[in-house]
Fold this protein.
Amino acid sequence: MKRTDYLSWDEYFMGIAILSAQRSKDPSTQVGACIVNEDKRILSVGYNGMPRGCDDNFMPWEREGNLLDSKYAFVCHAELNAILNYGAGTLKNAVLYTTLFPCNECAKAIIQSGIKEVVYLCDKYAKTEGNIAAKKMFGLAGVELTEFKSNHKKITIEL
């Protein structure tokens, strides 16, 4: 008899996004993303961090202060990194799993890349203007939004 407590596809791919978030060096918010095609194959992953070639030891990680003294002018979000990390063909009809609901800037990239569905773990900025704008664009573009639900309370990775 086969196991019955195995991970669903959604749990598996969100798990990859959660694990990817652990690569982020951001001291306050770690976000991960995983893009999957229609055949349930992982196409790309990403996490929030500084652009390639920008030494993150010399970049600001602060959340407060003027724009140039904070991370906000510099950090690439996980969703954008996952899109940019994909080096072959199209992302049309792919599904993006992300640990945090995408901002309006990432929403534009998601829509333009042809991703058809966003599965998100957390929507903690739901009432912000950027989040509201993202949801409006997703609705107009026909991108399906799915809040992640799991039957597992905890998944442990041991090394």
